Amino acid sequence: MDQLLFASEVFINGLMTGVMYSLVALGFVLIYKASGVFNYAQGVMALFAALTLVGIMDGQVPFAHLINAAFGTHLSHFSWTVTPILAILLTAAAMVLLAILIEKLVLKHLVGQEPIILFMATIGLAYFLEGLGDVMWGANIKTLDVGLPQGISDTVEQVTANWLGYGFFIDRLDIWATIIAALLVAALVAFSQYTKQGRAMRAVADDHQAALSVGISLQFIWIMVWSIAGFVALVAGIMWGTKSGVQFSLSLIALKALPVLMLGGFTSIPGAIVGGLIIGVGEKMFEFFIGPLVGGATENWFAYVLALIFLVFRPQGLFGERIIERV
Amino acid sequence: MTQVQANEGYITADGRQIGGVVMDLRDITLRFGGVEAIKKISFDIRQGEIRAIIGPNGAGKSSMLNVISGFYVPQEGEVWFKGEKRGPMKPYEVARLGIARTFQNIALFDGMTVLDNIMTGRLNKMTSGFFSQAIWWGRAEREEIANREQVEKIIDFLEIQNIRKTPVGRLPYGLKKRVELARALAAEPQILLLDEPMAGMNVEEKEDMSRFILDVNDEFGTTIALIEHDMGVVMDLSDRVVVMDYGRKIGDGTPDEVRNNQEVIDAYLGVAHD
C-alpha cells in the first residue's frame, strides 16, 4: 500500500516536471509551426529573459562592466528596485524588441532559404544571446524571486495524511507552474485555432508565396511569432529560474525539450503538452521502478532513449502532421 | 469587329457591357540583371472583362502577372489602379487592394483543409478584435459566421462540397487548381489574376475550368486577367488578348483581331497551313 502511494506521489511529481518540459517545448513548436525553423536559441532565450528580469528587478545597470572598463567608472546598480509585475512587463517588452531585431537583422535576409540555413542562423543567435546576456547582466549565478510560493505545500501534505495516512510531498512552485502552464497553453491553442492572426500564422508556415497572395505580411507574422516565443521563454525562464537559479545551465533545459518534441511532434501544441507529460512521468517512474536495478541516474538518458524508440515507429510523433506524399 | 474606345467601355461579341479602365500599365520594363524580361509594355484591363495574355514560353507573361500582383517591381513604367498611380508595393499590400491571384505551380496550404484554405482568402475581411476572436464572442462570432456563409457559397459555386474537410495535400491536381481559384475568389477581388489556370489538365477538366471562369465573370462581375497556353481556350474565353513575344507586345485586341494579325501569326501561331 505504502509502495503504491509512494509511486503515485512520484507520478504526480513526474506530471509537474513534465509541465515544465512542455513549457520549453511550446516555444519550439510555435516557431517551427510558423516558419518551419527549428529555433536552437529557444533555451538561451529563456535564460536571457530570466537574466533580464532579474537585472531589471534588482536595478542593475546594463553593460556595467563594459561601461566601467571603458570610462573608469564604478557603476553596478541604480538606486531603485522594480516590483516583479512591472519588471515582468518590461522584460516582455524587451522580448518583443528582441523579436523585431531578429526579424530585421536575421530573418528578413534569409527569406526563401533552405531550412538548414535558418537553423544555422538560430545557432548563431543562441551564441550571440548567451554572450549578450553575460555582458549585459554579468555572469554570476542569480536568484530569482518574483513572489511565487515555494517549498513543500503543507496543505497537500496534511490533507493527504488525513485521508490516506500518507503525506504527499509536493512543491508549491510546481503546483503554480502547472496552473500557469495550463492557462498559457489554453491561450495559445485558442490563439492559433480561432484568431485570424493564428490562421495567418499557420498559412505562413505552409507556403510563403501563397500567404503573400492572400494579403498576409510575412514580416508582421514573424515578429508576432518570435514575440510569443519570447513570452513563452520568459515564463519558462521564471519557472526554472525560481526553481534552480538563473545561470548558464538554464539554457540547457532546451535539450530536454528535444525528446519532448520527438514524442509529441514538432508541429503540434497539444503534442508538446502530452509529450512533456509522458517524458516527465516516464523518467520519474522509470527511475523509481527500474532505477535501483541498474544503479540509478536513469533520468539523464531515459527521455532520449524513449524518443529514439519513437523515431523508429512513429517519426512524425504522436500528434505531428502525417507526411503525405503523392507520387 | 469591336472598336475599343479610349475611356468609355465597349460591348463584347456576346453582348456584355464592359466598363472603364481599372488597371493601366504604362511602359513597363522589368529586368533581371542584364536580361530584359519585359520591354516597355503598355496595356489596360477594363472593368468586367476577361483579358488574356498569351505568348510562347519565355515571352514574359508570368513576369507581367507578377508585376501586376506586386511580386516583381518593374524598373521602369507606371502601374495605375482605379485611376491612381500605384507606388512600389509589397505583394501582401497589393492583395489587400483587392487583387487576388493563383499560381502556375499551385501554391496552397497543404496542411490545411480545403475549407481552411479558402477561409485564408478572407483574412483581410475580418476586423473584429484579437481577444474576441480567441474566445469566439460578440462581433467575432457574427463575423466568422458571415465569412463562412460567403465561403460556402463559393464552395457550392465551384462544386467542391464533397472535399470541404479534406486536407489539400491529398487532392488530385485538377481539384487543387479549383481550390486555389476558390481561395482567390473568397477575397471578393476587384481583379482576379489566373496564371495558367488550365495547365496540365485533361480536356474534361479544361472544359470545367473554362465554365467556372466564365461563370465567375458572369455571376460576380469579376474582372479577370489570365495567362494561358491553350489557344482554343483563350480565343473562346477572352474578350481581349495581349500577345507577347520575347518581352515585347506584338498584338493587342479582340481574339479575331489577334488571330488575323500577321506579326502574331508569324511569331506564335506559325504560318497557317491549309
UniProtKB/TrEMBL annotation, chain B:
Record protein name field: ABC transporter ATP-binding protein
Coiled coil: none
Lineage: Bacteria, Pseudomonadati, Pseudomonadota, Alphaproteobacteria, Rhodobacterales
UniProt entry keywords in alphabetical sequence: ATP-binding, Nucleotide-binding, Transport
Domain ABC transporter: 23-271
Assigned GO CC terms: plasma membrane
Keyword Nucleotide-binding among record annotations: yes
Natural source organism: Paracoccus amoyensis
Alphabetized PANTHER family for the sequence: ABC TRANSPORTER ATP-BINDING PROTEIN (PTHR45772:SF1), CONSERVED COMPONENT OF ABC TRANSPORTER FOR NATURAL AMINO ACIDS-RELATED (PTHR45772)
Pfam families found in the cross-reference section: ABC_tran (PF00005), BCA_ABC_TP_C (PF12399)
Source organism superkingdom: Bacteria
Classification via InterPro entries: AAA+_ATPase (IPR003593), ABC_AA/LPS_Transport (IPR051120), ABC_transporter-like_ATP-bd (IPR003439), BCA_ABC_TP_C (IPR032823), P-loop_NTPase (IPR027417)
GO molecular function: ATP binding; ATP hydrolysis activity
Leader sequence residues: none
